[in-house]
Specification:
The chain is α+β, with helices and mostly antiparallel strands and 152 residues long. It has a domain at 55-151: Band 7 domain (Tetrahydropterin Synthase, Chain A, 2-Layer Sandwich). The chain is 42% helix and 22% strand. It has 4 helices and 4 strands. Strands 1, 2, 3 and 4 form a 4-stranded antiparallel sheet that branches. A hairpin with a 4-residue loop joins strand 2 (62-67) and strand 3. The longest helix is centred in the N-terminal third of the chain and has 30 residues, at 2-31. It is elongated, with a radius of gyration of 34 Å.
């Protein structure tokens, strides 16, 4: 008889533990429920002004002949400069020939090895950013965009 009582007590204890774990997991599901999906709530009304498009100015195609000591290589670059929307294009346009001339001189001094691979466009962008910011002192260049770059 004592075996039946001990067996029943073990079964009741295991049943009680199972119910306790089930209650704990249900409680944790309520506390840790996932966030609602994007769009479940109405998006906040933002009365923002329409963002004005940036001002873009294209430099003339730059063609530079580079000498690496043994042979001549030609670099052809097409670049667009991006300015703040508040900058009028009429104030940028007179500076473009000076920027093209200055960057051509700067690229003539570059070693063709610096212009190869993934670092070539970075070199051109940095040089252009420096020259453009120096030439157009009060105007601020936002970004340099390389449309095409070919070194052959």
């Amino acid at each position: 008889m004592s075996f039946d009582r001990t067996g029943n007590q073990i079964i009741l204890a295991l049943l009680g533990l199972t119910l306790a774990f089930a209650g704990a997991s249900a409680g944790s599901l309520l506390l840790l429920r996932p966030a609602p999906a994007h769009g479940a709530y109405a998006p906040p009304r933002i009365e923002a002004q329409q963002a004005a498009p940036a001002v873009y100015a294209a430099l003339p195609t730059l063609t530079v002949t580079l000498n690496d000591g043994g042979r001549l290589q030609e670099l052809r670059v097409r670049v667009v400069l991006e300015f703040d929307p508040a900058t009028p294009l009429e104030t940028v346009t007179p500076h473009l020939p000076r920027i093209a001339d200055a960057i051509s001189r700067r690229l003539l001094e570059a070693d063709p090895a610096e212009l190869r691979g993934a670092e070539g466009p970075l070199y051109v962008k940095d040089a252009l950013r420096y020259v453009a910011n120096k030439t157009m002192r009060p105007l601020k260049l936002r970004q340099v965009l390389i449309q095409d770059m070919l070194l052959r």
